[in-house]
Amino acid sequence: ADYCAAAFSRIHATYALASSEERLRLVWESVTDGMRLTDATGRIVAVNEAFCRLVGKTRAEVEGAYLAEIYQAAERERILARHRERFERREIPPTIERSITLWDGRTLQLEVTNRFIESDPRRPLLLGVFHDVTEQKLAEQERERIQLKLFQNQKFEALGTLAGGVAHDFNNILTGVINYTTLAREDCPPERKEMDELLG
Predict the structure, then answer these.
(1) Hey, which of 61, 81, 176, 192 would disulfide with 57, CB 3.0 to 4.6 Å?
(2) In the prediction, which pLDDT does 52 show?
(3) What is the pLDDT of residue 187?
(4) pTM of this prediction?
(5) Statement to judge: residues 43 and 122 lie in one domain
(6) Number of separate domains in the chain
């Protein structure tokens, strides 16, 4: 009876674990942000499909490779060294907003959330969640560009209004000068040609 109870308990625990793992896998795959687990050496332990779409590589190409392989070649050594240093010190900002250039030349703006997972002290992992904000950043830049253009147009409009006002004032002054000159010419003797020259 004890043997049967122990066997039943093991089966139940195995089923519960499998069920829990299945739920975790479903959550892992249904998240729309890219998710990546890396070890202390910088090797990628696991990724979800969203991460693969984000970096333009298959799961087979990514899992087991060094995380630096997804970046442009010129940055790989620096990125891997920084990862190892942060991992060793267990110091990484919980949230980072950064621009990255991928292996295929695409540049992405990302919000990255990082957490160390130390459920197995012999093999700690770093979970990175990558939220692509590239389109949002491009929209913000476009909005800023339009606002700057609008501001410049308003500035030119104000200058035009000011110039129009100055021209109007100058025209009023000039009209006064011409009118007074005309009146003065009428009062001058006909032999005074200077007034005629002024009025053209």
Answers:
(1) 61
(2) 96
(3) 66
(4) 0.61
(5) yes
(6) 3
Q: What pLDDT score was predicted for residue 119?
A: 80
pLDDT at 118: 85
Q: Are residues 112 and 58 in the same domain?
A: yes
Q: How far apart, in whole angstroms, are the C-alpha atoms of residue 42 and residue 63?
A: 11
The identity of residue 174, as a single letter, is: L
Residues 6 and 81 in one domain: no
Q: In which domain, by residue range, is 108 found?
A: 32-132
Using an 8 Å Cβ cutoff, are 145 and 153 in contact? no
Q: How many CB atoms lie within 10 A of CB 125?
A: 18
Q: What single letter denotes the amino acid at residue 133?
A: V
Phi, psi of 45 (to 5 degrees): -90, -45
Q: Are residues 26 and 39 in the same domain?
A: no
CB atoms within 10 A of CB 57: 19
Provide the token pair at 19.
Answer: 């069920």
Residues of the chain with pLDDT under 50: none
Residue 50's CB is within 10 A of a number of other CB atoms, namely 21
Task: State the amino acid at position 24 in one-letter form.
Answer: L
